[in-house]
Structures are given as structure tokens and as C-alpha cells.
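Person: Please work through this fold.
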Amino acid sequence: MKRIKQSILFLWLCLAVVATASAQTSFKFKVDTMRWSGDKCINIVFLGEGYTEPQLTTFAIDAAQHMNYFLKEDPYKRYAKYFNFVRIKTPSNVSGAGLTPDAQIDNFYRVTFGHAGVDRMPWPQDFSRVNRVLSTNFPNYDLVIIIVNSTKYGGAGASKYICYSKNPTAPRTLCHESGHGFGGLGDEYWNGGGYEAPNLTAENDSSKVKWKNWLGSDDIGMYHFVEDTTNTWVRPHPDCLMRGLNNPFCSVCKENLVERIHAIVNPILSTEPKIMSVNSMKEDSMLLRLNLLQPNPNTLKIRWVFEKDTIARDVDSVRIQTSGYPKGTYYCTAIVEDTSNLVRVNNHATVHVSSVTWKLYKRTTGIKTVAQPNRYVIGPTPFTSQLVVTRENAADEIMNVQLLDLSGKMCAQAKGKNRCVVTAASLSPGIYVLRIYEGNHLAYSRKIVKK
């Protein structure tokens, strides 16, 4: 009996060890919502590195403080309603971060300083752990912010990722690194990598430079790097946040951050009627309504078009009167443009708009039916070589899916009944305008990013 009891005890201990190991490697953690604006908004995830279990409360406080600071920086503060924030607590066995990649410690993501040979650059040496935590707990993210529990100065940013330490300059470092990780901006203190970015170029012709629409205002010009003895590379501003932490973003950088926000978020959150199927009503009018995400100050302008006539402006709803109209099919489109003064691009009212179209059926006098705007599944976002658009509700009209650059030039298109595949492998990375036509009517418009 004693041997049996010992065996049972041994088995229980083994199971406990396995269960503990499984829990440690399951990568399943609680996701805390810090701020939620809506399902279609920009998702930012805070991860903590080098916080032990007792220090996770400190991580929660740090993340909240940094989020609040982030939302006070222009242009983010104008578009605060466009952002969601969550945090995921991942405890480390050891506090802090390693000093070099060759001297890792037992923190969760194996973050060390000295990444790529740069002493002030902290970065996860086991990035698979970052990916597993995100894919398991919150896969639909647009930006990941890793706060490192160390007072040593440092920060780094790359596509969709930021990693920085809890140095006193941390909030400013966060904003600077967001220029890299969120906006795709380059450093303006030195272009040692020799790469093009929205705020860096080797183009020295003022008529062709990317920020030509800003030249001569807000101190925007063509500034050479002091360290660049070849006088090849130029930046737009003498002292932008992408050059020094004590500065705000310059107008060119703000514009590109706003464009990135626009590419992810459609300001039209939802519409009324909400139904997808046809709804019969015995009325002489139909109320159409938009639910919008408004910047602060509100720079959204709205134009309502019934058939080809503008019937209202800058209101979020209209009532369509059907009395006096013969039987037939009619279209009403709401066009929303963000007229922010932070953006100066050509053909703004043509390509920088979001829209939605209702199809209204007049069957007999006093009776009509109305269908909600067609719903589309668009992906992947961002896209690379192909963009697939699927229409969820079947319709008779042929879809015409178009990609335009920010000047309004057609770059690619595809036509189909309920599914279109746009081939875009040859297009340069950047922001494009996606337009979907149903027959001859514009049914959907938004910006989209190609990696």
C-alpha cells in the first residue's frame, strides 16, 4: 500500500510539473482593455518585458501613462477616437533586460540592448515569443509597443513594432519610435542607411520632392544632413521629432501619420438601415443615417447625392422622399471627406474620401424597399502581391475594383461577380485608394496600404 501511495504521489507530482510547464508555455494570457473606440479602429497592444509577477501592476501603470502621453501628441490627439489600446501581462522570471545579445537574461521575450551592434537599441532576441503571444491572445493588431523595465536609455522601431526602455525620456522615445513603427518614417538625425522614406529622399529637385506642397511654410524646406559630406540626402525640417526628442513632429511627418491613420480606419463606422436583406416598408420616405468617427476638431465634410444631385451637406442623416417618383431603382450616396489642414495632397477631394451607397427600390406608389449598402470582405490588409475583395451579399451588378495612387491615377483593377482578385505585385509600397463600383455607381471607397 505504501508503494502504491508513493507511486500515486509521484504521478501527481509529475502531472503537476507537466501542468505548470504547460501553463508557462501555453502563451495564453489575459488581455486587458485600456481604451476601446470600436471594432474597426487601430489596435495598439502594450507588452511588458522584464516585469516580474509582482511588478505587473507597475507595468499596467506604465502602459496607461504612456498611452495617455501618446494621445497628447499631434496628430494622434486629433484622432484619439480612432485608436484602441489593450495590454497583455507577460511575467518575466528576472527583472530588466540583458546588456548585449550575448548576455541574455531570463526575461520573457529575451530583450537585450545592443541589438544590431547598437548599444541604445533594445530588441527581442526571441521574436517568436512575441509572435506567439500576439497570435494566441490578440492577433488583429496594427502596432505593438514593448515597454522594457530598465532605466537604461534606448528605443527602436520597425514595421508594426516598437521597443523602448523606462528611461525618463520614455514617453518622447515612444512618440519618436511610433514614427518608425506606425508611420514608416525615417530618422532625420542621420540617414546612414541610405534609404527612401516619406521624410527622407535623395531627390534634390524642389519640384519633385515628396513634400513639395509644404515647401515655404512651417519651416519646411530641403535640409541636408551635416554628416552627409556628399550633400545627397535631404530632410524636410531642421528640428523634427524624428531628429530630436524635444521637438514635435513636423508638418510632413504629421501628414504621413494622418495618411496612415486614414489607410487603416474608415470614418464611416456603420450605417442605418443596418439590414443586409431587403426590407419592405409602407412609407413615403426613408431615413438614411451615418455613424461617424469624428476627429477633434471635427474636419469631416459630408455630401449626400441622390442619383446625380447633391441633396444635403454636413449632416449625418437625410430623409429620402419617394412620393412623386415613378417605380424604379434609385441610388443615394454619402461621401465623407476629411478636410484636415494636416494634409496637403493633390486631388484631395477625389481620392481622400470614404463613401457608402444605398440602393432604393420603388415598387408602387407609397411602397418601397431598401437594401443596406453591399458589404465586402477585403484582404489582406496591408496587402502585398494581391488584394482580394469578396461581396458578402450576392447582387446582379458586376463589381469593378480599382486601386488608385494618391494623385488619382489608376494603378490596377479587376472585375467580377462576387469576388475580385487585384494583382498588384508590381506596385510600389505605399498608400493607395481602393474603390469598388457596383455597375456605374461608386459603392465603397477607402485608403489601403501595400507593403
Remarks:
- Residues 2-25 form the longest helix (24 residues).
- The chain has four domains: 26-181, 185-264, 266-373, 375-451.
- Residues 1-24, 275-282 have pLDDT under 50 and may be disordered.
